[in-house]
Amino acid sequence: MTNYEYDRLIYREGYKYICGVDEAGRGPLAGPVFAAAVILNPSDEIHGLNDSKKLSEQKREALFEIITEKAVAYSVASASVEEIDEINILNATMLAMKRAVDGLKIKPELALIDGNREPENLDVPSQLIIKGDTLSACIGAASILAKVSRDRLMREMDKEYPCYQFSKHKGYGTALHISLLREYGCSPIHRRSFLTKII
Prior knowledge:
Elements: H1 3-11, E1 18-24, E2 33-39, H2 57-70, E3 73-79, H3 81-87, H4 89-102, E4 110-114, E5 126-129, H5 132-135, H6 137-160, H7 166-169, H8 175-184
Parallel strand pairs: 1-4, 4-5
Antiparallel strand pairs: 1-2, 2-3
Helix pairs in contact: 2-6, 3-4
């Protein structure tokens, strides 16, 4: 079964609009956590949709342009470093997901959410799907939009804080990033709650 076939099975239950929801950036030591919500046209397939982590950066960037052009509706949102430190990364991720769904110009009748946790106070019914970014086309599309949007921001942050080389590691806890953290200390976009055992 392809990921579009998975979505079409759900559409056959009588829904008009279904959105996929996924996040990017739960693990890094720096930068916001992003989420995206995407409503696709199940009759107008975009080839190559998959979990963003399984795609090259070049492929993700190309698909980003196609998704944003062909989607029925899409929304990208985030939760800030300050919010992550205040309410923890799990709750900040759920907040970003809710913001993404709320930002859609068309209200879906169902949200397919990657993972095993549902955002609180979501205004639409939801269905949790483990490994949803590989099973569902609309979740795969959301995965790509969230990942590319976050990576683009981290490349911008590299210009603002060049000593941390954010464009290389996107804020993840690589050996390079940790060594630079120990050399230069925290920047304003580091998640201080993540760094208690590092610096």
